[in-house]
Amino acid sequence: MRYNRRVSKNSQAFDPPLEALREGTSCMERTTLVQYIRHQEKKFQGATGEFTSLMNEILIAAKIVSCQVNKAGIGEDILGLTGRTNVQGEEVQKLDEYANSTFIKLVGQSGTVCAITSEECKEPLKIPCNHGSGKYIFKMDPLDGSSNIDVNVSIGTIFSIFRKKTQGADVTDEDLFQRGDQQVAAGYAIYGSSTMFVYADNQGVRGFTLDPELGEFFLSHPGIRIPAQGSTYSVNEGHYSKWEERQKRIVNHFKEEDDKTGRPYGLRYIGSLVSDVHRTLLKGGIFMYPADKKNPNGKLRLAFEAVPLAFIVESAGGRASDGTRRILDITPTEVHQRVPLYIGSKDDVETAERIFAES
Ligand code: AHM
Ligand code: MG
């Protein structure tokens, strides 16, 4: 398009229209995730900037993975299986491996972490001091829901950050196996119809959406609060025959008619945890992955899935439980420990816990 500008001797004529700058949609008025984190850092006296640097690397890795996920199916041969299985015995997708190595490379070289644990790595990766290790521990599920990649369902990266507890260079079990309530921050990037970054710290939960043209995450969901009660339940009901009686009673409860509590609830189940929890966080309701005959401790991983998502949902006013205990009160004993998960609106999760307790 040709731009028809009249040259004027009056330099004012070339100033950007001030009104346009005041519009809320202008990128100059929107808060980026990096600005938000820097702003938080300034509130802490003596902050070194190490946490901000770590978050910067996480964001860059999320953008790189987002680009690859968006391009999956075209160009490079990135879809499909690697032919390997991970420590859980699950088949590793090429994109799983790509996301895992991207986050490990960027976060591991940032000089801000002393250890990384990942759903895709058997053992914790301890960063040696002479490679510039930092005071944080980074835990991740690099690509949750990856079995859905080939059908274009939203998938995501889930992470949590802890501070090293012990003094000295060695990373000990005390550092690696901290209770979930010791988390400094947690979040997820969801690669969906848009890429979003949901981030929780001691100031609450905020959602940032990636502007693909500017390559920047902008605040789109300030102060996320989960409704106290929802109208949907989310569970893989195909496993019904393998459930204990009390789990069947929980699901039957949400399906019963009751005008007072708005039941029956609708059923929503994507089969990609990050997407199911994202919907639950924004709209309310309950997501469950219970124990069953095949998986006596459930399927989901405590450190890589349950703990970060519990921190996010509870920071937004919700609740997360294994049926009897708050997820954030559990002290882990193994890197790849599994746990049953009930997460979502406070009232709905408490209802599930109440039915669970009535044996
Ligand atoms: P993963 O993709 O990191 O291995 O995670 C496991 C996935 C979750 O995203 C999802 O909630 C669950 O497995 C679905 O399991 P199922 O197919 O049994 O419903
Ligand atoms: Mg997962």
CATH superfamily of the largest domain: Fructose-1,6-Bisphosphatase, subunit A, domain 1
Q: By helix and strand content, what is the structural category? A: alpha+beta
CATH class bucket of the largest domain: Alpha Beta
User: Overall mean pLDDT score?
Assistant: 90
SSE order, one letter for each helix or strand? HHHEEHEEEEHEEEEEHEHEHEEH
Major beta sheet, strand line-up? 4-3-5-6-7-8-9-10
Strand residue percentage: 15-25%
Question: Would you write up a description of this structure?
Answer:
- With 359 residues, the chain is of the alpha+beta class.
- The chain folds into 2 domains: 18-221, 2-Layer Sandwich (Fructose-1,6-Bisphosphatase, Chain A, domain 1), CATH 3.30.540; 232-358, 3-Layer(aba) Sandwich (D-Maltodextrin-Binding Protein, domain 2).
- 29% of the residues lie in helices and 22% in strands.
- It contains 9 helices and 15 strands.
- Strands 4-3-5-6-7-8-9-10 form an 8-stranded mixed sheet, with helices on both faces.
- Helix 3 (50-71) runs antiparallel to helix 4 (94-108) and helix 6 packs across helix 9 (346-357).
- It starts with 17 loop residues before the first helix and ends with a helix.
- Residues 1-25 have low confidence and may be disordered.
- It binds 2,5-anhydro-1,6-di-O-phosphono-D-mannitol and magnesium ion.
- Residues 141, 144, 273, 305 line the site of magnesium ion.
